[in-house]
Amino acid sequence: MKKISVVIPAHNEEGNIFLIHQRIKDVFSKLENYHFEIIFVNDGSRDQTQAKIEELAKQFEEVKFIEFSRNFGHQPAVKAGIDSSNANAVISMDADLQHPPELIPELIEKWEEGFDIVYTIRTYPKEISAFKRRTSSLYYKFLSKISDVNLREGGGSDFRLMDSSVVDVVRNMNEADIFLRGLSNWMGFRQTGIRFTAGERASGESSYNLQKMMRFAFTGITAFSVKPLYLAAYLGFIFSAIAVLGYGIYVIHSFVSQTEISGWASLIMTVVFFGGLQLIILGIIGIYLGKIFKQVKERPNYIIRSKNF
């Protein structure tokens, strides 16, 4: 019998806890030679998520839980479940049922074929707006271009299976701003992907607003590359060269045409433009300095308030 751990981070998911447990249990009831456990990671929920998980844990021995002392974020929650697992393979998935548990047999099948990481490639249903599809596609293309990882479009989902050998590597990592989607690609190993169509959220509302999505995007970009720093340096050289060349041409034109050098409006706009460019470059440098600042303090990715195993 091989053991599979299913890690599920949960933040304000009280309406989905019983549903996802039942669907996972139904899936494994049809699989022979496998037994499973579900590790719920309560990421500082403000509703009755913890109470629902504890109620479920009293009824079913396969249900385990980790409760954070506060909200630490989705990625630390996934890592906490991975760190605490003790199985032949670990499957991470979200609690909102947009990751269909019915795909688990396919993940296990690919794992049994010899793949160490089986990731999923998400496709959106027709109901999803064209704007979300387009922005998601552009993000993954941009991330692949500007960083040292090559995430396939739709392949950034946290719905994946990892072999115990991969889990050991992840467990020993101690990055302050952990980005598991990129780490999964960066680590190598034998990998393959499975396509799936994201389902609708069973209940509740997504806590991923635009601000969190932008922060997550910056984390992904800066976690695996220093190319933005090189880009900032290149921009500095390019615009400096343009400014020197343009001003030289303007001075020569003024001598030839016997006109005065004037135009305070254009001068102010130029100053404002280059001032903004400098702030952007300083912001990029500041992001990297902030990551170094957080890393050298060596604070843990999460703090556990309670657990039942």
Automatic annotation (TrEMBL):
GO cellular component, as recorded: plasma membrane
Family matches, as CDD domains: DPM1_like_bac (cd04187)
Cell compartment(s), UniProt: Membrane
Key word Transferase present: yes
Residues that span the membrane, as ranges: 229-252, 264-289
Top-rank taxon: Bacteria
An MF annotation (GO) of this entry: glycosyltransferase activity
Entry keyword annotation includes Transmembrane helix: yes
Keyword field: Glycosyltransferase, Membrane, Transferase, Transmembrane, Transmembrane helix
Recorded topology in the membrane: Multi-pass membrane protein
InterPro entries in the record: Glyco_trans_2-like (IPR001173), Glycosyltransferase_2 (IPR050256), Nucleotide-diphossugar_trans (IPR029044)
Signal peptide: none
Domain Glycosyltransferase 2-like span(s) in chain numbering: 5-150
This protein's name: Glycosyl transferase family 2
Organism, scientific name: Kaistella jeonii
